[in-house]
Amino acid sequence: MQSPRILPVTIDHLALPHEEIMPNGVRLYRMGGVRQGVVRLDILFKGGYGVQDKPLQAMFVNRMLREGAGAMSSDDISAELDYYGAWIDVYSSQECNHMTLYTMSKHFLPLVALLEKMIKQPLFPSSNLEVLKRNNKSHFLVNSNKVDVVSQRYFENSLWGESSQFAYMVQLEDYDAVTVDDLRRYYNRVYNNCNCTLFLAGDADDGMLAALAEKFGTGDWGSGGALPEAPLPPYETAYAPRRIAVDGALQGAVKMGFMLPDMPVEDLYRFRFLSVLLGGYFGSRLMQNVREDNGYTYHIDSVIDAFGKRYAFMIGSEADNAYVTPLVQEVYNEISRLCNEPIPAAEVELVRNYILGELCREYEDRFSKSESFINAWLSGVPFESVNDYIRSVKRVTADELHDVACRYLSGQPMIEIVAGS
Fold first, then answer.
1. 0.70 exceeded by pTM
2. Number of alpha carbons in the 13 Å side-chain half-sphere of residue 226
3. Which domains does the chain have, with CATH numbers?
4. What is the mean pLDDT of each run of 10 residues along the chain (421 residues)?
5. ∠ CA 318-324-330 to the nearest 5 degrees?
C-alpha cells in the first residue's frame, strides 16, 4: 500500500483590513467574508489603565457599561442580549479599553443601538458598583491562593521595576476605594469619538455600515478630547530571584524571563520562532527535557507576550515544590544550549511546519484574522506585519536563529519568580 503524499504546509498572504475614516474621525477597519450571517464588532478606546489616576478605574468603567444606560437597567440590557442571542465581552489593557460584540447579522441594527446607549449614556449605578466590587474582591482572594496567578503578578512587577506605574500590584483595599466619581472622571476623559476605533469582521451589508456611521461616526460625542500618543513606557527590570509563599500550595509556579530590548523587527520575528523551538509546542526542547526526560512537570512553555507596545519573553511552568529548583536549572541549561550549540536544520523545519500549521488554524476565519490585526493595532505596528511574520517564518534559517540566540540570550539576566509553599 502506498503511503499518502506529505505536502508542505502553505498559508496565503492575508488580505488587510479595509480602512474607512468616518466624518467625526472614528476609524473603521472592515474584514468581510466570514461564516454566513455572523458578525463581530470590536470597539476600542485608547487609554486603558495606563491613563488612570486610581487603581482599577479602567476595569470598572468598562464593566459598568453593562450595568445600566439611558432608561435601561442592567437587567434590561441582559434581557435584550439574551433575546437576540448575542454576547458582549469587555476587558482593559495597558493602552486600551475594549468591547466586543458577537451576534447574527440580522440582529446587528438593534444591538448597535444598544451599544451606542451603553457607551454614550452609562448610568454607573452605585448599587451595581458595590455588587461588582464584592464579586471582584472574591475573585481576587481566590486568585491570591493560586500559585500561577501569584507568580504572574510578581513577574510583571519585576518586569517593569518599582518605578513604573505598570509594576503596581493591586491590593484588596483598592477595590473598596473605587467610587462612582472615580469612574465618571475616567469615563469623561477617555470615552469619546477622538479615542474610538472600530473593527468589524463578518457578513456586513450597507445597512449595517450605515448604522455604524450613524451611531458612532457622525458628530462629536463624549466630553473629552484626543489622548496624546504615549511614548514607550520606561522599565527598570528587577532581576533578583523572588520566592513568594502561598499557604497550602501543593505545587510551585515558576515564571522566568525578561523584557525584550528594542530590536529590529526581523530579529523580533526570529526570536518569536526561537521561543517556539525552545518551549512553544509539545515537542519543544523544554518539554522533552523537563517533562519527558526528567518528569519534573506536566507542562512548560515559553511565549512572547505583548505589554502595550513592548514585548516580554516568559517561560512558565508548575511543578511539585521538590522539583522547582532542578526545573529552573534545566531551563538555564536549555538556554545555554541554544547559545552554544548549532541548531539542527531538521529541527528548524519541524518548528517551521508547526508554526505555519498553527497559523493556518488561527487564520481559518475572519474572526481569528480580526484578532491578529487588532493585536497589531494595539502594538502600534502596521497591519502588514502579520504577513511579514509569515514570510519570516518561511525563510528563517538555523544560522539566523543561532545568531539571535547569541545576541539576545547569551549572558542575559533572567527574572526568576517561584510561588509556592
1. yes
2. 8
3. 18-216 (3.30.830.10), 242-420 (3.30.830.10)
4. 73 87 96 75 93 95 96 96 96 92 95 97 97 97 95 96 89 96 96 96 90 96 87 89 92 96 96 97 96 94 92 96 95 96 96 93 77 90 93 96 97 96 82
5. 100
